[in-house]
Amino acid sequence: MSNNLEFDIVENSFEWLSAQRIQSVKGLSSTLSAHALWELPNPYITRLILEQDNDGSWNSSIRDTARACSALSTEGIVFTASARWLLARKKENFWNRDVYDTAYALAALADMGIQDKDGCDWLFENYCPAWEQVGTTSLIITALKKQDSLAKTRTFETFIQEKARWILSKKRLDGGWIHISTSNLAIQALLLAGFKDDVEDSVHWLLENVHENGAWGNKDDDINATALTLSTLGFYKKT
């Protein structure tokens, strides 16, 4: 991320995002995170907070609440009511017995400075062929790595490295993993796991697949895919 063309792409993409009517919590969260990673003025903070319910959640949804909490944490904002809401919905060692809800919740809690080893153990111990997909495994790596880093341990490091190498083995020759959003999840997980050199071609693949108007998407322009890509590029630049 050094030449003028790359920064022109990023600038054009942020201009495209600013012209969109972003109403979903998922879209607001990813757009907020992208602005934070590029250290840009962030009007999406207020917009996301205004969507919060009185109980501290967003839409009474584990994933929306986790996404919002992770996004706000990039700007140093943590709501204790939101953390309590997430923790109150943990049953046994998981959220809804669902790999996605659990991974998003664990990542968000780590972003808010809250350790939860039991939830990490559940992800690790229940990893199975049904979860062995690039996007799913990337989310698991992200959750475990964030929790390990917060606890200053390497409890899941062997697992993380093994699964990161598996994700790399699924990368196509052009540097991507077919879908834009899946590729972003993979690159972000691999950056967290310490594989920056191995995703240089993937970053170039992202830049090569931007639409003429500055958006990203598998076919149509997509707000979340665009914001996710900008976050990935910003994270790569900072790593």
UniProtKB/TrEMBL annotation:
InterPro entries: Terpenoid_cyclase/PrenylTrfase. It comes from the Archaea. This is Squalene cyclase C-terminal domain-containing protein. It comes from Methanosarcina spelaei.
